[in-house]
Input
Amino acid sequence: MFYLLSFFCFLFRSAFANEIEFGYSPDLDVGEKPNLILTPDADVRVARVRIEAGGKTYSFEKKGRAGDNIIFEWDRDTSVTEAIAYVDIVFADGYTSQAQVPISYSYGSSIEVDLSKAKADLDKKTLSVGVNAPVEDVEMLVYGAKKKLLDQKSFALNEGPGMVTIAWDSALEDVVLLDVTFQSGSSYAGFTFSPWFLDIPHQDILFATNSATIEEAEEWKLESTLEQLKEVLDKYGSVIPVKLYIGGCTDTVGDKQSNQALSKARARSISKWLSTHGYDQPIFYHGFGEDWLAVPTKDGVNEAANRRVVYIVAATPPPSGSGVPQVRWKALK
Output
């Protein structure tokens, strides 16, 4: 969008004047350069323009026809948002005019990042987030365990507004945290996101039929899991807020609703035990019932591999590409 400023050209040989409009873009889009737009109502033999911006001088000479836009552009520098244009115009009929035009502009509105719909694809090593303005450039820091810097890079993006996608190096292993800064003109927005998750190997608790009570003879298995969780916290706790996600699963014997309720009760029972025995980080649980089968079977099949509980540690709910169904996890209180 242009701002139009009307000036009248003073004539040397007539009581009348040729009119010319001076315009510019006050809010520059991605890649758009600062500019001055002249729109004369008569043919212009030559328009000499000198721009003073950020300590630099830009000089131009152009001609134009009546009603056409004559555009003058200079270097895009997000640290410079003001300029002065010195204009000397000679019309085709010989009349002349001079003007001094102050120009103020910005590089887009303040950028904001929406992580509510953030989606990480672990197979493609990409992250998609929402933004309210075009993103020109990106700076990304990639951290591993114990906050070791694995990679640092800057690159042009030129996407947005809406969902934008960035990628990290697929050769990097054990990526724990992405520290990202978006630039939109003179506006910056930073955020962190963790694509990391870890499946804790363990021995499954044996529950009595239709019961969620943890028998004393089974507690040694949870004690072993607790030690593994402490090791995870020591390795990753300084980088991200580690959360524990516990999911209960069943086979397809019995009705689906009962299986879901039982798996939820067992997941909560394990969560409660860990919480009361020294694990002091946030715990979330969910009952998948027969909706997340380790071994696909038909209904009514007694399959031991499907009667299990999974333990996953991550900074956020396990993302797509993790193999974990996307569900609403319940926080243990």
